[in-house]
Every structure is written in C-alpha cells, then in structure tokens.
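Q: I have 125 residues here and want to know how they pack in 3D. Can you give me a structure?
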Amino acid sequence: MIWLLRFVLLLLILFLINYSIKALFTPKRKLEKARKQKQFLFIDDEDVRKNFVLTYKGAVFAGEKYLGPADNTFDVVSIFIWPENASFLKGLVKEDFLYIDKKILKYYPHAEIHWKSPVKEFLKQ
C-alpha cells in the first residue's frame, strides 16, 4: 500500500513539474515580457484561420489573415490589424506603423495590409 502511495505522489510531482515548465514558456508570457520591455515580437500560428499577435513599443496588436490566390498558389493575401488597447498607441508615429508593415510583409510577402480604427485614420493624415 505504501508503494502505491509513493508511486501516486511521484506521478503528481512529475505532473506539476511538467505543468510548470509549460506555463513558463507559453506565447502569452513571451508577449507580455516583450510588451513590458517595449520590444518587437510577432507570434503567429501556421494555421491561417488563427489570428496573430504582435507587440511593438509597448502596444499590442492583433491581426486577421485571409487566404486567397497569389502567383498560382494560395497564400495570405489580406491582413487586417488593430490595436488591442488604443491607449498604448501614445507616442507612436507613422514610421512605427510602416516598420510593423515591413515586418509583417517578411512573413507574408503577398499580403495587403489594412489597418483598422484608430490607426487607419491616423495613417490617412
């Protein structure tokens, strides 16, 4: 009986260690760290149906990808980006948004990037 209890306890400890390691290396944790350090970080899943998230200079942006025909293949042809929280846009200039566009185009060279409000209005000025 005591061996069974020790075995269950060992399994519980291994489970907790595994859970802790997975929790430390989640993309959300990396994103939050990059946001606090005001670095650029792009987190994307290969699945086109899933949105991507990026952070730049403390602002977090989300993006939606749309698949379409491009150069005789199907590829991401349209991307819509919006800020998660508009209050973090303070201090960003047009060059910052052009930098973000350039970084996204490295991953999706056939895509046309569309910004949603309030960035869309800001870039039209």
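Q: Anything worth noting?
A: Residues 59 and 116 are 15 Å apart (CA to CA). Strands lie at 41-43, 52-56, 59-70, 73-83, 112-115.
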